[in-house]
Amino acid sequence: MSFLLDIENIVAKYITRYGTVHAINNVSLTVETGEILGIVGESGCGKSTLARIMMMNIRPPLHLIKGRVVFQELELHTLSRSELKRNVVGKLISLVPQSVMNALNPTMKVRDLVKDIIKIHKPELDNNEIYKLVQNRFEELGLDTSVLNLYPFELSGGMKQRVAIAIATLLNPKLLIADEPTSALDVSTQKTVLKLLKKLWNRDIVKSIVFVSHDIAVVRQIATRIAVMYAGKIVEVGPLEEVICRPLHPYTELLISSILTPEPEVKKRGLVEIKGSPPDLTSPIQGCPFINRCSYATKICLEEPPQVRFGDRLVYCHIRG
Known about the structure:
By secondary structure, the protein is of the alpha/beta class. It has helices spanning 47-54, 81-87, 100-103, 110-121, 127-140, 157-168, 187-202, 216-220, 240-245, 250-257, 264-269, 299-303, and strands at 3-16, 19-32, 36-40, 62-71, 74-75, 93-96, 175-179, 208-213, 225-230, 233-239, 308-310, 313-315. It has a domain at 3-91 and 206-315: Rossmann fold (3-Layer(aba) Sandwich), CATH 3.40.50.300.
């Protein structure tokens, strides 16, 4: 399987007058063609920041300190903001933002909002051609085209999310990044959104999806591979079911054990608490970021950052790798 996106040795910080937050600490990750990669971790671990870096949507106070972001052979980190907007965003990589409830302009009907977005990339299309393009995509995804004549405030939260996903994929981007797309939705609506994303992937409208979530149970419903983040680091990467059924990193193990699921062994075992708190990211971390919460930690974990490959798994742990 070939790489669609490759990020290498990313270091990113939020630099403000109040101090610096070391948000991403030397992270490397690939997105393969034809996969749905789930990125999971607790709030504040850097998931959404990493999603922004994947498409070089970087604005102060966020700063990319070092690293490379390569989409196929295109080095995104070398492009200007105008080049990214013109040639990458929406065409090669598209984002369904975390704050989709507020992302749609409430003063514009959906059809007018879509028209402005399409005009950026396809100025040669007239209004009728744009409307036909949008109508066809909505019908293809099973969405009621009548919503095109509504204002966003007239739509439910779930419909806003589905409209945002449809808009993000109008130009058939190769990679769709969905940042916490189900976090504000009820369980029934979550399933509808997940089915829509799966439909886009199954129909080859998008080649690959990066699905960002704090909820590993939701990620399990859609992803084919999973990356677990903790305190600005990727701590484990591997095929979804292998990681779920046989976690190697202590944080992954505790994260899975802290989720209530219907399996009999989980009911018998009960929930496991992850004791302690994540480290303060206003200071650089030298060794393993999980050391203060890990029951396996030894002296080497404090002194050296781990990186151990285990078959087709990647595990950042001196002891469990």
